[in-house]
Design goal:
The structure is a single chain. The chain is of the alpha+beta class. It has one domain: Nuclear Transport Factor 2, Chain: A (Roll). It is 40% helix and 43% strand. It has a six-stranded mixed sheet with strand order 2-1-6-5-4-3, covered by helices on one side. Strand 4 and strand 5 form a beta hairpin. The longest helix is centred in the N-terminal third of the chain and has 34 residues.
Amino acid sequence: MGTSLFQTIFSFILLFVPFQAQNFDSFEDIATYLKTSDSRNIAAYFAPIIEMNILNEENEYSKAQAELILRDFLLKNKPSTVKILHQLNSNPNYRFAVFSFQGIDKKFRISISMAKEGDFFTIKVIRIEYDKE
């Protein structure tokens, strides 16, 4: 009886861990994925349609197309450091972050906007521009 109750409680907790982790740690996770050029895990956060502006080339793409474009950018600009410069997490339906992305020979600023869809936040907009510093 005790084991069954423990399993039920443990299963209930596991059910909510991914939701909480995504809400509170999503930008930390995205920073880690940027550092490792892991476009696949970043794409897991993508909305079905995502607006991308990469070095002044702007368009809307499907989730699969956006992943390929991001993968291409990361392959061409291997990251040496990625830092979160600014985060906005105070709005219950909107998240925003700005990252400093140092490639091998170029520095970029990446901004990501997320909006709540159902119970989760999805990436709606990614902007990548040269850092002017």
